[in-house]
Every structure is written in structure tokens, then in C-alpha cells.
Amino acid sequence: MARIGVTGMGTMGAALALNIADNGFEVAVHNRSPEKTRAVVKGAGDLAERLAPAENLEDFVGSLTKPRAVLIMVNASAVDAVIEDLVPLLEQGDLIVDAGNANFNDTRRRAKSVEDAGLLFLGVGVSGGEEGARFGPSIMVGGTPEAYAPIRDIIEAIAAEFEGDACADFLGTDGVGHLVKTVHNGIEYADMQLIAEAYGLLRADGRDIDRMADLFGQWNDGPLQSYLIEITSEILKTKDRDTGRPIVDVILDQAGQKGTGRWTVIEALKMGQSATAIESAVAARSWSALSDTRAAAEAAFPPDGRVAEVLDTDLEAALLAARILTYGQGMALLEAASAEFEWSLDLARVAEIWRAGCIIRSSLLDDISAAIRHGLPHGQLLLEPAFVARLHETIPALRRVVTAAMLNGQSVPAMAASLSFFDTLRRARGTTDLIQAQRDFFGRHGFKRVDRDGDGFHGPWAD
Ligand SMILES: NC(=O)C1=CN([C@@H]2O[C@H](COP(=O)(O)OP(=O)(O)OC[C@H]3O[C@@H](n4cnc5c(N)ncnc54)[C@H](OP(=O)(O)O)[C@@H]3O)[C@@H](O)[C@H]2O)C=CC1
Ligand SMILES: O=C(CO)[C@H](O)[C@H](O)COP(=O)(O)O
């Protein structure tokens, strides 16, 4: 009998189940199509003795000790159907864990309906891709402490570690684990886009791909140290087996997206927050789908042949500045969500559990968690003294890179969005006085004055 079961033997579910077994726990395994379960057991080697495979949900649930704990790792669109099948098979006090990527609004709804049925529910974000799931992901738990208690030891055992600290924690009630994972992915989208923009500038400059790989490798030894920079270097070194060409040259430039970046932007907009670098990254993926349109537009507006003059050191600093601003936007969004849903989210802890295991892990996160513990003035990372100093050092480079890109017709939407966010925020008096005047002019919306208390003032056009 197993203390926990995993249903969904896809990329992530299989890897998590093996991780659980590797940490000494018996684990029941199940998949809608049983051949996948058989394949996982067959490929498990010595770990197979800790796997209890089941060909149907009834046997799967029957192989769990009570109170049962079932971890679902299926596509977001299938979670409701799986829960519907599971609930009649479970008893009061049993636990359902949705560990896939889920829209946190769905998680809130699911938590309520599962709890109404007398069961416990957790919405858990897991990050790290297949390798992370197998050897140590970052794990973001949302739900109730009672629901977390029975599996806490398992979650902490399978999670990544940063200097002995498990990169897993209970973050608060209902949807918080999935919103934190969603924002993690939003930051992931922006960081990937920023890196792709730097790659685009280097390509426009005619750089050799192998030397580019070395440059990313060097950057990974400095302040940009991160998983995404590291794998970019690896990817750029990789040749296609069939043609011998750099692998990036045979990959169609159309990026997929499963929804978490878009969810981040939607939630940011709903909460009156800005996630502009993330929004640019989502847009860039959407624009990437328009291959025919882009080809037609290139024919209509051909490149003017100028060469981008961008220094490697400037690119490195520009990426760092934009990354800081992106993390800052993500953290501010989480702070706003915490206030709105009364989660009392410990943002420093979030940064801590992202320091290892997850896709956005980077050396910067240790500094970000320290900065949050010192307190972020006005809730903004960019105002924390250590980050003020870093931005003073790096923003001029971001400005030079964005300017060079713009002058040369190179697309850098996420870098430009980050810089505009920064420049907007660092002006005590902006330009929305005119917006307010326009709103009042056409719609009598009223405005506040700088020289009097109260609101609802109108311009003379209203007379
Ligand atoms: N891949 C990654 O890097 C990461 C993925 N995630 C998230 O983890 C979850 C799983 O992703 P991943 O493992 O990559 O996906 P896969 O495509 O590898 O596997 C999908 C799994 O979902 C099952 N499934 C699909 N539809 C149904 C259904 N209607 N009923 C029952 N089972 C169903 C599949 O079963 P079958 O074999 O029968 O089709 C399969 O086990 C997703 O939410 C994803 O967003 C989270 C972090 C990283
Ligand atoms: O959660 C993940 C990583 O953290 C998954 O890999 C997710 O699929 C990435 O999102 P997308 O497929 O939209 O790029």
C-alpha cells in the first residue's frame, strides 16, 4: 500500500512519481492510458519496487493507505474531469492535490467544491521541467494547513534544496500556490523574451553562433547567473543531427504557449498592476505565430541594412536591469493579489523557494529575498537601496541597447517595455494631467487639482 498516488504519467507526473519513489516512499501510479503507466514502471529500474501501478482509478485509489492522498498531474483542461471521477471513490478526510499548472480562479472554485464534498484539497505549483520534477523541483503549496500536513514530509523530501533549505513551502489558502506558479511562469516568459532579444541583436550584428554560446556561458559566471542563461549557452552550442547546422537555425520561429503568461497579464490588469515586460513577451509569442504576415511586412518594409552597434558588456548589463524590473513587476503583482485575497503571502519566502529547482532560478533571487526582508519602499524592488544602486549601474546600458535596437529597426519589446516602466515610475509628475483633462473635456469625468483638496473639479470647457 502507498501513502500517495500520482495520476497522470506524462512528462511531469512520471518524473514526480520517480522522485517520490527515489526518496523512499511507496507511490501508486496511474494514467488514463495504461500503457504509459506500464512504460514508467518498466523504465524505473530499482525504483519499480516502490511503484504500485494501477490500470484503472478504482484500483489506484484502492492501493492507497487511508487517509488517501492523490496527486493529479494532467493537462489543466482535464483536471475537472479527473476530480469528478476521483471524488466518488474517496472518503471524508482524503486529499486531492492538483499539481499541474492551473488558473488560480479554477483552483479557488475546485478547492471549494472538493471541500464541500468533505475532502481536502491543495493547489500546488511545481516548477523545474522534467529534470526538476525528477530530481528536485521548486514547489508552491496553496490550500489549508490540515491538507498540507499529511504530505508535507514527502513534498519537502522531493523538492530542490538551496543551501539546505527545501525549495517548497505552504504559502497560504486556496489559489495562492497556483497564482505564485503562474507569476513565476510570467517572469519566465519575460526572461526568455529578454534573452531572445539579446540573441536577436547579436545575430543582427552577424555574430558567430559558437562565440555567442561562449558569451552566454561567460554571462552565466557573472551577475546574470541563471538556469535560462545557462541553457541558452547549451542550446546555441547544439548542432542539428540531420544537417549539422546550429539547432536554432532549423527551428521554426513560432513560440507555443499554454496560457500561464497570458493568465499573469490578465490578473495583473484585473488588479490594476503592470506586468508590461511579461505582456510584451506574451505578445511576442503571439506575433511569432504570424509567419506569413511577417514575411509580407518584411517585403513591404525591408531592413535598411544598418548594423546594430551594441557592446557585449552593455547587453549583459541591459539584461540584468530588465530582469530586475521584471522580477519587481512580478513581486508587486503578487503583493497586490495577497492584499486582494487576504493571503498574507510571504514574498521573501516566495523568492527563497525560487532560488533552486525552478526554471527562473538565478543568483538574483537570493538578493531579492534579502531585499524583501529589509522592506521594499512603496512595494517596489527598484526602490530598495541595493537595487537602486544596481539600477544606477545598469540602466544606462539598457538605454543604450534599446536606443541602438530602435535605430536599427530591431525588435526589443520586453527591453523597451522594462525601460518605459522604469522611466514612467521615476517621474514624480507624469503626463496624465492631460489624460484627465481629455476625460473631463469629452465626458465630464472630473479631476483632482494640485492646489486644492477634493475631487470632481472640471475645466472651463464644462461651463
Ligand atoms: N512540462 C513541463 O515542463 C511542465 C508542465 N507543468 C504542468 O504539468 C501538467 C502536466 O504536464 P506534462 O506532464 O508536461 O503533460 P504531458 O502532455 O506530458 O502529459 C499530460 C498528461 O495528462 C493526461 N491527460 C490529458 N487529458 C486527460 C484526460 N481528459 N483525463 C485524464 N488524463 C488526461 C495524459 O494522459 P494520456 O497519456 O492518457 O493522454 C498525460 O498523463 C500540466 O498542467 C502542465 O502545464 C508544470 C511544470 C512544468
Ligand atoms: O510550467 C512550465 C515551466 O515552468 C511549463 O514548461 C510550461 O508549459 C511553460 O509554459 P509555456 O508552455 O506556455 O511556455
Automatic annotation (TrEMBL):
UniProt keyword annotation of tRNA processing present: no
Signal peptide: none
GO molecular function: NADP binding; phosphogluconate dehydrogenase (decarboxylating) activity
Residues bound to NADP(+): 8-13, 31-33, 74-76, 101
Listed pathway(s): Carbohydrate degradation; pentose phosphate pathway; D-ribulose 5-phosphate from D-glucose 6-phosphate (oxidative stage): step 3/3
EC annotation from Swiss-Prot or TrEMBL: 1.1.1.44
One Pfam short name: 6PGD
Catalytic EC class: oxidoreductase
Reaction(s) catalysed (UniProt annotation): 6-phospho-D-gluconate + NADP(+) = D-ribulose 5-phosphate + CO2 + NADPH
Residues that hold substrate according to the record: 101, 127-129, 184-185, 189, 258, 285, 439, 445
Cross-referenced SMART domains: 6PGD (SM01350)
Active site: 181, 188
PROSITE patterns per the UniProt record, alphabetical: 6PGD (PS00461)
One GO term (biological process): D-gluconate metabolic process
Domain 6-phosphogluconate dehydrogenase C-terminal: 177-462
Keywords (A to Z) from UniProt: Gluconate utilization, NADP, Oxidoreductase, Pentose shunt
Assembly and interaction partners: Homodimer.
Function according to Swiss-Prot or TrEMBL: Catalyzes the oxidative decarboxylation of 6-phosphogluconate to ribulose 5-phosphate and CO(2), with concomitant reduction of NADP to NADPH.
Similarity field: Belongs to the 6-phosphogluconate dehydrogenase family.
Descriptive protein name: 6-phosphogluconate dehydrogenase, decarboxylating
Organism: Boseongicola aestuarii
Gene: gndA
